[in-house]
Design a protein that fits this description.
single chain; alpha+beta; Arc Repressor Mutant, subunit A; Aminopeptidase; 3 domains; five-stranded mixed β-sheet; two-stranded antiparallel ribbon; 11 strands
């Protein structure tokens, strides 16, 4: 039975994301576009015969119910166990999800469980079919509202939903109607670049937004820096995840989190949960060159880590002398 109160679905933007259910009708255009792209790309990256397994996978879900990746193609040959070494049925399952034939109904830990799309998405959204122009308007408008100001490329990349040409045309039309204007946005290095804003936001932007001075530890996927180039330009902060970087080539650590203090990215910290001791262990901390770890700043970092203990199910913070006892 479909959960008519479902408020979100899993879909692909720049990465796998949780999206509001109202976005699903627009995503059907992305499903169509991505189908052609994936067929061409995955014939080279994965086993080229995956398309022959799509109907088999659909039939299995129809007859047996929701499945995970380990439930399909159980007799097929696996490779060496690498991240992207998918057997044909696993590839078919991913392809069906990314093209809207199936949907994620729930997760078991990190494991996605898939069902037929009609068993997951409520009819009110499943059977809406907005026009391409309406979906372009929705995607561009949503992206610009979320970012506040943006270039054509940044808007296009926000949802990975529309092309830069689509965005350029949309902006030109909105500018002609007076809804959009262009402003110079100063970067961290003093240079500036033209970015679009909604005209109605111009007056509000004259007054800096109030912000709390406390330290926040951000996810590597936080919207503030999901676009690495934009984050480096605006904040002067160069960041990448080094999970897939060989140990000897890592600059910082395995899973390092950016630290935001007020409106500035002040450095990086690596912490992990120690399940045995029920502590949040600090593996390393790297302030930016312009940031000093003053006693007051250490205290703010310590306060944030203490708050994180509740989220991680820990009882205290350990490591690096607990920031020299803040």
């Amino acid at each position: 039975m479909v959960d008519i109160n479902r408020s979100a679905f899993e879909g692909g933007t720049h990465d796998a994301s949780i999206l509001p259910i109202k976005a699903f009708p627009h995503w059907q255009h992305k499903f169509t576009r991505d189908g052609a792209l994936l067929q061409k790309r995955w014939k080279l990256w994965h086993r080229g015969d995956f398309l022959t397994q799509t109907q088999t996978v659909l039939d299995q879900i129809s007859s047996q119910g929701p499945v995970g990746s380990g439930d399909v193609g159980t007799q097929e040959k696996r490779g060496d166990g690498g991240w992207w070494d998918w057997h044909p049925s696993k590839t078919a399952l991913e392809y069906l999800w990314r093209t809207g034939r199936i949907a994620v109904t729930r997760r078991e830990g990190f494991r996605k469980i898939y069902d037929l799309v009609e068993n997951v998405i409520p009819n009110a959204y499943l059977h809406q079919h907005p026009s391409p122009d309406d979906s372009t308007d929705w995607a561009c408008r949503s992206a610009l509202q979320a970012m506040g100001f943006a270039t054509e490329k940044e808007i296009a990349e926000f949802c990975d939903f529309v092309t830069i040409l689509d965005v350029t045309r949309w902006l030109a039309l909105r500018q002609a109607e007076g809804e959009i204007r262009w402003i110079h946005v100063e970067a961290a290095d003093g240079t500036s670049r033209l970015r679009a804003i909604f005209t109605q936001d111009w007056e509000r932007l004259q007054t800096p937004l109030a912000f709390a001075p406390r330290v926040r530890i951000l996810s590597p996927f936080d919207p503030a820096l999901r676009n690495r180039q934009r984050a480096q330009e605006l904040f002067g902060f160069s960041y990448r995840i080094e999970v897939f970087v060989p140990f000897a080539k890592r600059v910082y650590g395995y899973y390092v989190f950016p630290m935001l203090e007020g409106d500035k990215l002040i450095g990086r910290i690596e912490v992990k949960t120690n399940r045995t001791n029920r502590t949040l262990d600090i593996s390393g901390i790297w302030p930016e060159a312009t940031t000093s770890l003053t006693p007051a700043r250490k205290a703010r970092i310590q306060a944030k880590l203490t708050r994180l203990c509740g989220l991680a199910g820990c009882e205290g913070v350990s490591g690096i002398e607990v920031l020299a006892r803040a």
